[in-house]
Amino acid sequence: xxxxxxxxxxxxxxxxxxxxxxxxxxxxxxxxxxxxxxxxxxxxxxxxxxxxxxxxxxxxxxxxxxxxxxxxxxxxxxxxxxxxxxxxxxxxxxxxxxxxxxxxxxxxxxxxxxxxxxxxxxxxxxxxxxxxxxxxxxxxxxxxxxxxxxxxxxxxxxxxxxxxxxxxxxxxxxxxxxxxxxxxxxxxxxxxxxxxxxxxxxxxxxxxxxxxxxxxxxxxxxxxxxxxxxxxxxxxxxxxxxxxxxxxxxxxxxxxxxxxxxxxxxxxxxxxxxxxxxxxxxxxxxxxxxxxxxxxxxxxxxxxxxxxxxxxxxxxxxxxxxxxxxxxxxxxxxxxxxxxxxxxxxxxxxxxxxxxxxxxxxxxxxxxxxxxxxxxxxxxxxxxxxxxxxxxxxxxxxxxxxxxxxxxxxxxxxxxxxxxxxxxxxxxxxxxxxxxxxxxxxxxxxxxxxxxxxxxxxxxxxxxxxxxxxxxxxxxxxxxxxxxxxxxxxxxxxxxxxxxxxxxxxxxxxxxxxxxxxxxxxxxxxxxxxxxxxxxxxxxxxxxxxxxxxxxxxxxxxxxxxxxxxxxxxxxxxxxxxxxxxxxxxxxxxxxxxxxxxxxxxxxxxxxxxxxxxxxxxxxxxxxxxxxxxxxxxxxxxxxxxxxxxxxxxxx
Length: 652
Hints:
Leucine-rich Repeat Variant; HECTD1/TRIP12-like; TPR_TRIP12_N
């Protein structure tokens, strides 16, 4: 019996346990079904809320018209009962209350219009994806790569809601709320994309930020406003035109001309640098050149480089009639040509190179640029191409090859554009510098032509522009060059010299010299200012000829580039034309010029053949008694006769 009782007890416990587990399962199933019903109800609530939100949005858009109509009705009712109200209650208090309500309604309408403008810009931007904006698929992939990346790539709707909050904060009169809104705007602009910032209208935010730049009582507000404008230029390139339109440039210049806060001045300088790429004239008219260079020494080295780079940007494409906009800044730029930093020095050289290119055909403006020791500084800088030069502070200065080439082109433009500056360059012994630079050779090549072709071309261009231009051919020269009658006559009259005796050649040489002199004297021309300067100071031409003429023959022989050889021939021809006969004979005593001319006459390059003929004519004019024999011995007359004889086609 006891065993039977134990078994019954165990069976009862087992049944109770099974019933309790079944109840728990039923409870859990009921709970899960309740949770499913709750989630379904929540999703239904969300859908109803979104639908009601859309309806509220449509109601809000139609609210201004209803408000205006209700205001009109209220105004009519108020007009009808004004007499009773004024008699029973205080008339002035009721009028003030009515004006207050009217002002509030106007503010609400203005805010609603601003929001509608932002929504229109957002809808317009959503209509078509801007160029360069990341695609939705790319943004979705980036969001899947890591958690929390949505904070860095905000959606359009999130940015639109944030912009509404920021706009209301910027328009408030509370400095703390404005600072918070500016900080949030800077953060949004720094990490935003073209798509996320499509709702931002520059015509709405730029005037507010420019207005905040005038808050002189709060430096933090001005600093954050400047920073927001800089971020806006980077994120939305079209905002730069809006900043110029809403007079933001003069405010930036004021912050640089009167430095009270160094951080604010640096931020203003960054803004001007970004604007200088597309709006240089607007910055110059606002005094931007003087603003960025006035206190450049007070900033750190990185900021100094930024300031001089901005000044170089302002010098690009400047019209001649706007030269007065940079005249006050030329002394500051000239002082930077002795700076110890390479980047600052190169940007200062770039600024002058652009100004010289802008005023290449205006001698007065070129003289204005060179009025503050520009030429000595440039000559000192190009002299460092051969030996390391020292700045005024005693530190070694080296420049890039591109900068040296640019400086040579600048000096050539100055010499060509102004006779006074050309004379000043000759007086500064620039010929000695050119001689040293041409002699300096690459260690591996060992020749003067081992320099880059563009740099060698600019060297020879400068050497060419230091001398006056050759006279244009007159009627006699044109006839001689056109039909070859002069060279043919010279060849026929000298040809019998091979069979004659030595004493029979004197009448021939005298006749040739007299004929050439008569041809040159027939064309009278006025002496230009450059030639007059060389006649007044003949030692300048003597120095040029002594230092450069022999070297030009060597450079021509070793040069490969045709433009370099043409510049060499131009310099040689100018020296032969300008030097008097006695000085020319002394210069050419040890130089094989006849052997140099002979192969050029039969050259396939027509410009080289014409230059060689011109040189032979000059030598027969000035030194006929010396070069008749040399030309005959080197085959110059034979090459000239070959040119004057027409060639007959041969049958194959």
